[in-house]
TrEMBL record:
<dbReference type="GO" id="GO:0050567">
    <property type="term" value="F:glutaminyl-tRNA synthase (glutamine-hydrolyzing) activity"/>
</dbReference>
<protein>
    <recommendedName>
        <fullName>Glutamyl-tRNA(Gln) amidotransferase subunit A</fullName>
        <ecNumber>6.3.5.7</ecNumber>
    </recommendedName>
</protein>
<dbReference type="GO" id="GO:0006412">
    <property type="term" value="P:translation"/>
</dbReference>
<keyword id="KW-0436">Ligase</keyword>
<feature type="active site" description="Acyl-ester intermediate">
    <location>
        <position position="181"/>
    </location>
</feature>
<keyword id="KW-0547">Nucleotide-binding</keyword>
<keyword id="KW-0648">Protein biosynthesis</keyword>
<dbReference type="InterPro" id="IPR023631">
    <property type="entry name" value="Amidase_dom"/>
</dbReference>
<dbReference type="GO" id="GO:0030956">
    <property type="term" value="C:glutamyl-tRNA(Gln) amidotransferase complex"/>
</dbReference>
<comment type="subunit">
    <text>Heterotrimer of A, B and C subunits.</text>
</comment>
<keyword id="KW-0808">Transferase</keyword>
<keyword id="KW-0067">ATP-binding</keyword>
<feature type="domain" description="Amidase">
    <location>
        <begin position="24"/>
        <end position="468"/>
    </location>
</feature>
<feature type="active site" description="Charge relay system">
    <location>
        <position position="77"/>
    </location>
</feature>
<dbReference type="InterPro" id="IPR020556">
    <property type="entry name" value="Amidase_CS"/>
</dbReference>
<feature type="active site" description="Charge relay system">
    <location>
        <position position="157"/>
    </location>
</feature>
<dbReference type="InterPro" id="IPR036928">
    <property type="entry name" value="AS_sf"/>
</dbReference>
Amino acid sequence: MSLTNLTLKAAIDGLTAREFTSVELTRAHIEAIEAARGLNAYILETPEQALDMAAKSDARRALGEAGPLEGAPLGVKDLFCTNGVRTTACSKILENFVPTYESTVTSQLWRDGAVMLGKLNLDQFAMGSSNETSYFGPVTNPWRAQGSNKALTPGGSSGGSAAAVAADLCLGATATDTGGSIRQPAAFTGTVGIKPTYGRCSRWGVVAFASSLDQAGPIAKTVEDAALLLTSMSGHDPKDSTSLDVPVPDFTQFVGKSVKGLKIGIPKEYRVDNMPAEIEKLWQDGIAWLKEAGCEIVDISLPHTKYALPAYYIVAPAEASSNLARYDGMRYGLREEGANLTEIYENTRASGFGDEVKRRILIGTYVLSAGYYDAYYLKALKVRRRIAEDFDNAWTKCDAILTPTAPSAAFGLGENSNDPIAMYLNDVFTVTTNLAGLPGLSLPAGLDANGLPLGLQIIGKPLDEATVFSVAGAVEKAAGFKAKAEKWW
Ligand code: GLN
């Protein structure tokens, strides 16, 4: 077994038992990253910094000062600001931006002893579902359909994070989820991803997309690894006014806990047209596994589900158009010259933003404009409220909800890139939790007929990640998903 095949938990155990050092573990990952450049998962490698952090970690361990993630090499989505290390949001407008501060989430990982391997690719400003809107080019999914060498998307926007974890280019990665960007890439790559309750993780130092929806979370190899990472990433931060001042349990304690007697809701509205039979079958498998583990399965209704996607694609662009107004070429980032101030703004934004980002800014500005505000933005906020109420009602009947994560397995690069609506439809099962602020976890539960991974999603009550982890642990155990992408890169 090579050091990069280890789970995060196994690696930490190995470090604790002095079977290898963090420098050795980190070097193995650096070599794996160098050999996998064709995947384009990392857009910036920081090997010197990684080895320096690893050496310091080994020294701390020698002094008996090991933190919970001591010595573990991780990847960071390039949406998290890293002090002195270029942070681009995979845009041209921030192509040369070097922050002078560290995001709260990443600083907590380093506080707990983790090592940074580099910055991971994503859809530009986290807008997309295939990683194809990145200014640095798409990421290729390490998975391929059986007998085919067609390049597939790892999903988006956290495509680099998901691909890097799936290809063993880090032990775990940070990611963000505004409408599904942790969970859909996790489903497409056979990895585990959790978007926690809105407010669990600080948004400070994370490049903003849609502030009322954005949440950070981990992508990892196992449910337990995801719990380990989320425990470190969570916590109150006075620098983010929406950060929740509530205790953070050790989430790992809930993985493996019995789920006997829990009520699991199955929402009938999560059956969409043209959903592959294999996904329906996987969902039924999940139901059977949880029944066997002692859960009670209850049918529930989330009647406003069909309005979630349209509401999301109004609220998210509206907030994005406001958040992205700060990129004006004046204070930081790209500046294109012009004859006057207005022309400088126009030239900078025209050249600095990609097409999808411009589309969002146009939509967002339109739905917020006088005359259309009530018809679109205000209406979408009302729908959002109804969706949250649907979940409130569901919680009177069940403790957690089981659904598929995405309506398909990974699709080909280029397949949906000219059809924004087809691309947006990927988020049909994931946007609801963002609109309602709830935790949602995706874990790999099976393969389709082409040998591609499929994910199941577990949605929990507000701040009840604990139950989500217990249910996910039970599904993981029953599914026995051990498949890995066959190495071709
Ligand atoms: N695919 C969705 C979008 O493009 C979600 C992105 C995300 O969660 N960051 O808006």
